[in-house]
Amino acid sequence: MEKIxxxxxxxxGGASVKDAxxxxxxxxxxxxxxxxxxxxxxVSAMGxxxxxxxxxxxxxxxxxxxxxxxxxxxxxxxxxxxxLKAQSQQLDEDFYLGLSNAFQDLEHALGKVSPSDxxxxxxxxxxxxxxxxxxxxxxxxLADLFPKQVLYKRALVATDATWREGxxxxxxxxxxxxxxxxxxxxxxxxxxxxxxxxxGTTYVDDYERTTTLGRExxxxxxxxxAYCLRAESVTIWKDVAGLLNADPKIFPDTVxxxxxxxxxxxxxxxYGASVIHPKTLKPLADRNIPLRVKSFLDPAAAGTIIHxxxxxALAPAFIRKTDQCLLSFxxxxxxxxxxxxxxxxxxxxxxxxxxxxxxxxxxISFSVCVxxxxxxxxxxxxxxxxxxxxxxxxxxxxxxxxxxxxxxxAQLTQGKQLLLEQRTRGTFQFVCAA
Length: 434
Ligand code: ASP
Ligand code: MG
Description:
By secondary structure, the chain is of the alpha/beta class. The chain folds into two domains: 8-238, 3-Layer(aba) Sandwich (Carbamate kinase), CATH 3.40.1160; 317-433, VC0802-like (2-Layer Sandwich). The chain is 39% helix and 24% strand. The protein has 13 helices and 17 strands. It has helices spanning 20-33, 49-61, 67-87, 93-111, 119-127, 129-145, 170-187, 218-229, 262-271, 281-286, 339-351, 374-384, 406-413; strands at 8-12, 39-43, 150-152, 157-158, 192-196, 199-204, 207-212, 233-238, 259-261, 291-295, 304-307, 317-331, 356-361, 365-371, 388-402, 418-423, 427-433. An eight-stranded mixed beta sheet has the order 3-5-2-1-8-10-11-9, sandwiched between helices. Strand 6 and strand 7 (207-212) form a beta hairpin. Helix 4 (93-111) packs antiparallel against helix 6. Residues 13-14, 44-45, 50, 130, 197-198, 215-218 line the site of aspartic acid.
C-alpha cells in the first residue's frame, strides 16, 4: 500500500468520551474540524473506567466480591448508551444488545480470573475492556452521523507478551493496520477507522491474548498507528488548551506553547509532564509527523503544534510527580559505592521493574527516586538486603523545572525541605516531602 494522502490520526482521551454529551461533542469535532479524507480514531476508556477496572480485577484476583463495582461500571456505560440512543435517528435495540454482550464478555473473563494466574497477564485481559466498550459507543455514535463511513477494528497494535507494557512488533503492526485501513477504504468504501488505544495483541502458543501498553498508553497507540500508516499528522484532543508549561490543576498562571520541538516535549514527558505519554514522540519524530494538542472544549482554538522546529528560549516548564519513594543504598562496611555495587543495584532495580526518576551518589551511598509501588520496592529490598544497608522514604514529591531560571527555582523551592536536589545545564530537580 502506498502512503494514503491526507490520512490523519485523532486520539480522544478518557475525559473526551466520559459521557454521552462528550461522545456527541467528539462526533461534532470530527464533522466540523475533521479531515475530508481518511481518519483513524483512537479512543481511551470512558472517564475513570480504567481505574474502576483495575479495582475490579484486583478484587477478582483476590477472590473477593466485585459485583457492586461491576454493576456500577455497566450502569455508567448503559447510561451513556441510553442518552446516545435518545439523540439518534438510527441506533436501535441492537445497539443496546451490543453493549450488553460486551459486558457479558467482561463478566465471563472475570469469572475465569484465578489467584494462581500471572497477575499482570490477567490484568491485561480485564482492564483492556474499558477501551473496547468506549470504542463500541464511539463507533456507534459516529456511524449514526456518518452512515457507511465508519469501521471498527480491534486492537491493531501487535506486541510481544510483556504484560502491562507490551513491546511493539512494528512490522506486524504495520501489516495489520495497513490491511485494516485498506479494507476500510476499498472494500468498505468507508473513511473513518475506530480502534482502541492502550490495547495490543500477542500470540502465546498460537492463542491470541490481549496486552496493554501501560497506563495512559492511548497516545502511544495513536503515534504507533500514525507511524505505521505514514499519516500526515496526529491530533490529541484534551481538556486543556494545548501543551502548557505546567499542569493548571497544580500550578497557577500556566502558559501555552504555541509551537515546540519534539526534543523538548520528549524531555518534558520523560520528567512526568502528564500531557503526553512519554513513548509517543519518538515514532512521530522518526517520520517527521507533526503532533497537535488541541482542546475538545474549544476545537477552533490553535492549541500546540509539536514538530521539528527551532524556537527561542522557552518559558520554564514545571513538572510534579507524586507518590515518590527515595531509596538509599549504603555499603555495609563503609566501603565506597563502586561500579560493581552499582551494577548489582541496577540489575535489582530492573528486576523489580522500578524505573529511576533521579539518582545521585555520594561516597558511601547511592540514592534513587522511583515511583512508589509497595510490591516492587519490597522485591527490591529482598534482592539487596544482604549486600547493602537500605533506607527509604515514601510519600514524597519530585519536582522538575526544565529551562529553569533563578526566579523559577526560588519560587518553587520556597518553604520546602529538600531531601535531594540536582541541577544540570537545562534542568533543576528536587525531592521533598508531600
Ligand atoms: N485508559 C487507559 C488509562 O487510563 C489508557 C489511556 O487512557 O491512555 O490508563
Ligand atoms: Mg486516560
